[in-house]
Amino acid sequence: MRALRLHGPRDLRVDEVPEPRVVPGTVKVRVGWNGICGFDVRNYLDPVLPDEYLHPVLRTHGPHVQGHEFSGRVQECAPDVRGLSEGAVVAVEPLVFDGSCAACRRGEYNLCENHGFIGLMGGGGGMSEYAVVPADRVHPMPEGASPTVAALVEPLAAAWHAVRRSGMRAGDTVLVVGGGPVGLGVLMAARARGAGHVTVSEAAPLRRRIAEELGADRVCDPARQDAVAAVRGRAPAGADVSFETSGGGTGAVSALLGALRRGGRAVVVSEGRPVVLDPAVLASTEIELVGSFGYGPRDFPEVIAAIAAGSLSPKPLVTDRLCLEEARERGYEELIAHAGGHVKILVHP
């Protein structure tokens, strides 16, 4: 079968590789669509793992098939797998864990000491015609849901988890710094969970327009409009919760904290430029600054339920669709050169 594998920095190749076979406890998925995310691009530029490294859970060496945001249809189930029918549209949850560390025992498998991602660290990936994945990583979609929508569940689950981490309540005032795939996902998740007013600060015109389409109450261009002033013009005491999804460094975090009310909560979802922070800002205001990583046991099912209920409609996030042979130039390289001109590029193998 054809698969897109990473052979080194900026060295993606469509290779012929053996078609994977099911083993006990696994499902073979005919991949439908796979999204390219910011971490995929950073890994393309500077691979995080050498080919000889064996992840303790995935146990496969490189060159690795790429793609961790993927969907497809069930092709085959191992004999011991129940509850999945052939042809069913599914979303794949790529985060794997050892199940034995302290975090896993607490039910926080995203914080597992040996966590990893299918499609980044081994185990196949969504940039291939087929992938064999553990059955508990496969989530059936509701009747009528397309593989396109299913491919967006993974980034939406990360956004959903971030909103959970914020403690946001219905009616709260929210600021989202950054309107990329995660930021727009946070906007959608906050709206679905009852946010009262959402401001999005984003530099790229396309992303600002999509933020408006997805229900942002106020959209700011940080080059022209101060996000803190915009939020406090609406809520003089400040936002209840804020999210940093841009990776913009000290300036972005200054807006993140400056827009908050005393006792509010700021959630950092992104990686990016270094940040200079005076801890006294937190001490004197009792603002809580927390992180959010990946997703937990409730997030995929809750996102899929919200899609089924119609409170999440993520198709506007898709800005281009490519075949596997186009992925390197029109996907990865395009996002390096013109990230602001896209939200989510999907690849069909």
Automatic annotation (TrEMBL):
GO terms for cellular component: cytoplasm. Residues 181-308 form the Alcohol dehydrogenase-like C-terminal domain. GO terms for biological process: butanediol biosynthetic process. Pfam families: ADH_N (PF08240), ADH_zinc_N (PF00107). Keywords: Metal-binding, Oxidoreductase, Zinc. It comes from the Bacteria. Residues 24-143 form the Alcohol dehydrogenase-like N-terminal domain. InterPro entries: ADH-like_C (IPR013149), ADH-like_N (IPR013154), ADH_Zn_CS (IPR002328), GroES-like_sf (IPR011032), NAD(P)-bd_dom_sf (IPR036291). GO terms for molecular function: (R,R)-butanediol dehydrogenase activity; zinc ion binding. Its cofactor is Zn(2+). Gene3D superfamilies: Medium-chain alcohol dehydrogenases, catalytic domain, NAD(P)-binding Rossmann-like Domain. Belongs to the zinc-containing alcohol dehydrogenase family. This is (R,R)-butanediol dehydrogenase / meso-butanediol dehydrogenase / diacetyl reductase. The lineage of its organism: Bacteria, Bacillati, Actinomycetota, Actinomycetes, Streptosporangiales.
